[in-house]
């Protein structure tokens, strides 16, 4: 392999790393601004982050299918594995563990060993953020939006977060229903 090729590969790695850090810092700035805009009303901030994520997820699913080449999953277990091993890997370069399945196989948890959105983060020291703010709640919204685009209505929420002093970061996904392909009223 030529040294020029190795140098280009090294440059690409550095650019990817800078981009990941830029996303992390930009996200942190956005959360800080939302906190200020909503007067540190953390339940409302959580809703806003989820809503933003939902809108992102609705668009991101197209990019996911185009870049990954994967087909539609046949059940929730396959969907969970695809989200973890392909989706999170593709967009955030992490692979959360899929675990804690419910007896009816309609709920599971994603356990994050790392969360790039939470790098360099310190929650506000106001006595409330530790208990009320789900800093990475945008990820819950992204999953909701993306899964809705493949006809799966889900509820997604955090159970624990290292930023809140918990031992792990755990996101819980619950399938509410499979949605029917709905046609607009005047379409045949």
Overview of the molecule:
The protein is α+β, with helices and mostly antiparallel strands and 188 residues long. It is built from five helices and four strands. A four-stranded antiparallel sheet has the order 1-2-4-3. Helix 2 (42-68) packs across helix 5 (137-149). The chain starts with a helix and ends in a 10-residue tail after the last strand.
Largest sheet: 4 strands, antiparallel
Q: Averaged pLDDT, please?
A: 87
> Which parts are unreliable, with pLDDT below 50 for 5 consecutive residues or more?
1-18
- Beta-strand content estimate: 5-15%
**Quantity of strands, as a count:** 4
Report the helical percentage: 40-55%
User: What is the subunit organization of this protein?
Assistant: single chain
How far apart are the termini? 58 Å
Count of helical stretches: 5
**How are the strands of the biggest sheet laid out side by side?**
1-2-4-3
């Amino acid at each position: 392999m030529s040294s020029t090729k190795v140098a280009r590969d090294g440059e690409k790695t550095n650019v990817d790393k800078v981009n990941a850090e830029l996303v992390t810092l930009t996200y942190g700035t956005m959360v800080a601004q939302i906190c200020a805009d909503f007067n540190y009303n953390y339940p409302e901030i959580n809703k806003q982050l989820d809503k933003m994520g939902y809108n992102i997820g609705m668009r991101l699913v197209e990019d996911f299918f185009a870049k990954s080449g994967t087909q539609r999953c046949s059940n929730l277990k396959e969907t969970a594995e695809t989200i973890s091993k392909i989706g999170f890997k593709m967009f955030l370069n992490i692979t959360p563990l899929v675990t804690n399945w419910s007896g009816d196989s309609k709920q599971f948890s994603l356990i994050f060993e790392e969360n790039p959105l939470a790098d360099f983060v310190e929650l506000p020291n106001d006595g409330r953020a530790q208990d009320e703010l789900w800093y990475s709640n945008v990820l819950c919204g992204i999953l909701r939006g993306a899964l809705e685009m493949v006809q799966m209505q889900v509820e997604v929420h955090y159970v624990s977060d290292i930023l809140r002093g918990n031992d792990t970061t755990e996101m819980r996904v619950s399938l509410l229903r499979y949605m029917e392909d709905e046609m607009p009223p005047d379409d045949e």
